[in-house]
Amino acid sequence: MNPLVTRIACGDRQIKVTLPERTRVIRAPDPLPPLPDVEKSLRDALAVPRGMEPLPRLVGPKSRVTIAFDDPAKPLYPIKGGDFRELAIPIILEELERAGVERHRVRLLCANALHRQWTRSELTRILGAKLVRAFGTSRLRCHDAEDPEGLVPLGETARGMEVEVNRAVVDSDLVIYVGVPATPFNGGWKSIAVGLSSWRSIRHHHRPFPQARGISTQDHERSSFHKLMREMGEVIETALAPRGTRILQVEGIVNSAIPPQVCGVFAGSIEDAHKASLGLLDRQFALPVTGQADVVVYGLPNNDYYSRFSVFNPILLRNLALSYAAGSYQGMPLARAGGIAIFANPCHRQWSAQNHPSYVELFDKILPRMRDPFEVWDKYAEEFAHRPEYVHRYRTAYAFHGAHPLILYGQGAYQLKHLSRVFLARSEDPEVARRLGFEPFPTVEEAVAEAERTLGQDCSITYQVVPPFFWPRVSA
Fold it and tell me: How far apart, in whole angstroms, are the C-alpha atoms of residue 71 and residue 81?
């Protein structure tokens, strides 16, 4: 028998590992071809938007326009050839000027939700220096989910979920949203219903659900999360209709190359534009896989959406492992019920005290005595959300919202129930691994050997190669 010798991601480097010969290896689909001319594709999309009129019919000289955009957390890797937002927004401004809208009637708004606000230099990385300089500090701002004067309640869904949005949405005649959704979890109504919303609204769906059935948020045709986003979107549309406010969604989709390249551009109503985006995302990142595995192996880099321009910390590692690796799939989870997941990462005890202050408290003060994500959420979510020092640091000091680490910690709840054991190989601090809910092992090989002792020497093993992250579409 010839063992499988390969290299897997592990923190900031690749490590060599030896896996059993029977290991099934799955990789992201090959990159779709990039658009030959992204600018032309964008202009074509704006000329004939899906499900709505073109820009000249949506605005006039007196129109007030807000251009909102995804924050720098996305995409995971910088786009080859330049950021889509830096390309798209100046073109949109040109089209608005042709329609008679003067520049001073346009504002730019970063849709950071409960993520941290971003510095001018960080925004420059996705918008370019010229745009940041031209709009200054008054007409280019980050969303503030704790601003009592800047949030407008629009009503509740049929299930009683409050919907609040940034006042700019309500005060504008046209909202144009420029997004770069990297997964089905992003884009569509989530852009505004989450990106420009408040803790009061977001807490309803970004939380652990004890009755969760294990349908991944990447499974957009079955996930309850997407249904909730559409329900919130209906409340927003109903509230904006009497004001005559319209929303134009512009989404740029990147392929699976590293660095990624733009392979599709769609514009139109939120529903119509995002439907096209979802189709392309599935073509690029959904890999058909037959049969679950007893054991699944993942190598994890020190890189995720919430550590951009900052520090990758233990809570982010837990979320990357359980939500973005094991938790991303369509159909069934890649690991069977009662199976074992093996992750590889050094798991360093490191933090950004500026960007992630409430993360440190969760890890150092709560988790040593309480690990159940449902109990942690029930006892501490509201406190962390309203703690004055965390509210202050979110609003003024580039910190993630106080409740944000509890959201991430709770998102791993289902996988810990679904799997019998979760191993973390190559951990350099076993106590950190245990506190996160992982069993530490010095090497991937020793973790695999323990999985075989637990599930049998012939247990099936799948190695999912990341990055890039993708979602297996698992069928029986």
Answer: 19
Quick: pLDDT tens for 327-344: 999 999 999 999 999 999
State the pLDDT confidence band at 298, using cuts at 50, 70 and 90: very high
DSSP string, 421-476: EEEEET-S-HHHHHHTTPEEESSHHHHHHHHHHHH-TT--EEEE--SSP-EEEEE-
Contact between 64 and 189 (Cβ < 8 Å)? no
Vertex 82, ends 78 and 87: CA angle to 5°?
125
- Give the Cα separation of 125 and 78 in Å (integer): 9
Q: Tens digit of pLDDT for each residue in 157-177?
A: 999 999 999 999 999 999 999
**Mind listing the domains of the chain with CATH numbers?**
4-29+291-475 (3.90.226.30), 38-285 (3.40.50.11440)
Q: What is the mean pLDDT of residues 211-217?
A: 93
- Are the beta carbons of 180 and 250 closer than 8 angstroms? no
Are 408 and 318 spatial neighbours (Cβ–Cβ below 8 Å)?
yes
Within its chain, how far is the Cα of 29 from the centroid? 20
CA distance 96 to 348: 48
DSSP state of 305: G
Taking the C-alpha atoms of residue 20 and residue 279, their distance in angstroms, rounded to an integer, is: 36
DSSP strand pairing (330-331 vs 151-156):
unpaired
User: Can you list the positions of beta strands (E) in 223-376?
Assistant: 246-254, 262-268, 286-290, 293-301, 330-331, 335-344
Residue 326 φ then ψ, to 5°: -65, -25
pLDDT of 102 strictly over 90:
yes
Give the CA angle between residues 339, 340, 345 to the nearest 5°.
155
Calculate Rg over the CA atoms of the chain.
22
Tokens matching residue 291: 């049969």
- In the chain, the largest separation of any two C-alpha atoms, in whole Å, equals 74
- Residue for token digits 């950071």? 112
CA distance 33 to 255: 8
Q: Name the residue with tokens 């321009």.
A: 309
Q: How confident is the model at residue 2 (pLDDT cuts 50, 70, 90)?
A: confident
Predicted TM-score of the model (pTM): 0.97
For the chain, what is the mean pLDDT? 97
